[in-house]
Amino acid sequence: MKRLFTLLLFSISFHLSASAQDEHLTRPQTTAPVAGEAVAKGNWIVGASIANIGHNFKSETFTLDINPRAGYFISDNAAIGAQVQLGFIAYDGGEDIKYGLTPFVRYYFPEGAAPTHRWFGEAVVGFAGSSIEDSEGDAIFDAVYGVSAGYAHFVASNVALEGMLNLIRSNANIDVSNDSSTGLSLSLGLQIYLPGSGRSF
Q1: What are phi and psi of 27, to 5 degrees?
Q2: pLDDT tens per residue, range 148-191
Q3: How far is the C-alpha of 139 from the C-alpha of 172, rounded, in Å?
Q4: Sign of the alpha-carbon torsion through 110, 112, 116, 119
Q5: SS3 for the chain, per residue?
Q6: If pLDDT is split at 50, 70 and 90, which confidence band does 7 have?
Q7: How many Cβ atoms from other residues are within 10 Å of residue 29's Cβ?
Q8: How many CB atoms are closer than 10 A to CB 153?
Q9: Is the dihedral of CA 148, 190, 159, 74 positive or negative?
Q10: Contact yes or no for 158/130 (Cβ under 8 A)
Q11: CA distances (Å), 165 to each of 46, 77, 110, 148, 149, in order?
Q12: Distance CA 132, CA 99 (A)
């Protein structure tokens, strides 16, 4: 009886150990060392802000945007590129479609860098438009510019999840007056870092 009990305990322990190992092997990857290779000169960055939920200080509106982007690293840690602005605005009394193109400059700070994450700053300037028409039937179309602070967490050697805090100023708004407006928003995105010619990481 004692031998049977010992065998049973050994069998349970072995099964639990095997299950734990299987769980460890199939657990999804949540971080990866990048050590600067992804943000090196000659590489590319492509991706999008998949959720941009913001509040406009002036018009009291809520927005949801998707911003596809592509850029090129002109030096280590510094990239230039452009993003397309596609958005939907819901406000009291109606809705609006936003669009635009904003070139950007992004810099990844070496200070505070770690193998799995980077802090960065970004500046954008370009143009944006709105589906709302003014009293003369003209679509609103004007300048947009702003700055962002962000954090990139690498879940693979060339894939990063990003969070950004954006301060954007634009004349292209649902408000048909000529006044410009400033908005603060938070965006979450996914970026893929592609190695330059003849390079891999």
Answers
A1: -65, 130
A2: 999 999 998 899 999 999 898 876 654 434 445 677 878 899 99
A3: 9
A4: negative
A5: CHHHHHHHHHHHHHHHHHHHHHHHHHCCCCCCCCCCHHHCCCCEEEEEEEEEEEEECCCCCEEEEEEEEEEEEEECCEEEEEEEEEEEEEECCEEEEEEEEEEEEEEECCCCCECCEEEEEEEEEEEEEEEEECCCCCEEEEEEEEEEEEEEEEEECCEEEEEEEEEEEECCCCCCCCCCEEEEEEEEEEEEEECCCCCCC
A6: very low
A7: 8
A8: 17
A9: negative
A10: no
A11: 19, 19, 19, 6, 5
A12: 11
Look up residue 127 and give its two tokens: 């143009």
Report the C-alpha gap between 149 and 123 in whole angstroms.
Answer: 9
Q: What is the pTM of this model?
A: 0.72
